[in-house]
Write a structure and sequence with these properties.
The chain is an alpha+beta fold and about 200 residues long. Helices cover about 15% and strands about 25% of the residues. The protein has a single domain (about 5-180), classed as Roll (3-methyladenine DNA Glycosylase, Chain A), CATH 3.10.300.10. The chain is globular, with a radius of gyration of 15 Å. The protein binds a DNA duplex (13 and 13 nucleotides) through strand 4, strand 5 and helix 4.
Length: about 200
DNA sequence: ACCGGGATGTTCT
DNA sequence: GAACATCCCGGTG
């Protein structure tokens, strides 16, 4: 039994939403996975955020309504998926970095032939986007309305009381901010969180 | 096990 | 023209 998250869950400050997303379930057609690692990004005072220098064609959905997907293309071959947070005009998003696969193993493996084991199907931001078939067409999709069959659900598993906290990965600015959150001791975390 | 580099093209300066 | 919220493979030890 589970229920889809509503607008109110997402329309809160980014740094509140990010840890609350841990242990929620991301669903796409034929597949599902538990969110076990995320990173918070916000525009106003976060030099690591795509929104830091103001709106552009790429990042405009970060400035829009909470609960939509922000999907961007990077390194010439990878897609990464964020959940938009906070209020209209206040840019914020949470990057989904790792999932524990729950359903649709065969489908994910088909999309990610390089994964040797189940826990490698979605243990990275670009890996999970590929495993879930997320790409350009999903940028701006409304999770609350389950556009394209993509939504976030609560199956009754609460977020960890003490999530692992660390700095974000792959940035050249904002590297000091401890805005990476993970469920401790799960195999799917993309990289170990120092100090826990 | 660990490390280094190449892939590949959009986005913004 | 540089940077990029990454991943994978092949080298070495």
């Amino acid at each position: 039994m589970s229920r889809r998250l509503g607008r109110g869950f997402f329309a809160r400050p980014t740094l509140e939403v990010a840890p609350d997303l841990l242990n929620k379930v991301l669903v796409a057609p034929g597949v599902a996975g538990r969110i076990v690692e995320v990173e918070a990004y916000r525009g106003s005072d976060d030099p690591g955020s795509h929104a830091y220098r103001g709106p552009t064609p790429r990042n405009e959905v970060m400035f829009g309504t909470a609960g939509h997907l922000y999907v961007y293309f990077t390194y010439g071959m990878h897609w990464c998926a964020n959940v938009v947070t906070d209020g209209p005009g206040t840019p914020g998003a949470v990057l989904l970095r790792a999932l524990t696969p729950l359903r649709g193993f065969a489908r994910m493996r088909q999309r990610r032939p390089a994964a040797m084991r189940d826990h490698e199907l979605a243990n990275g931001p670009a890996k999970l986007a590929q495993a879930f078939g997320l790409g350009k067409s999903h940028d701006g999709a409304d999770l609350v309305r389950a556009c394209h069959g993509v939504s976030v659900r609560d199956d009754g598993t609460p977020p960890p009381e003490r999530p692992a906290v660390g700095t974000r990965i792959g940035l050249s600015q904002g590297t000091d901010l401890p805005w990476r959150f993970a469920v401790s001791e799960v195999a799917e975390v993309s990289r170990p969180v120092p100090g826990r």
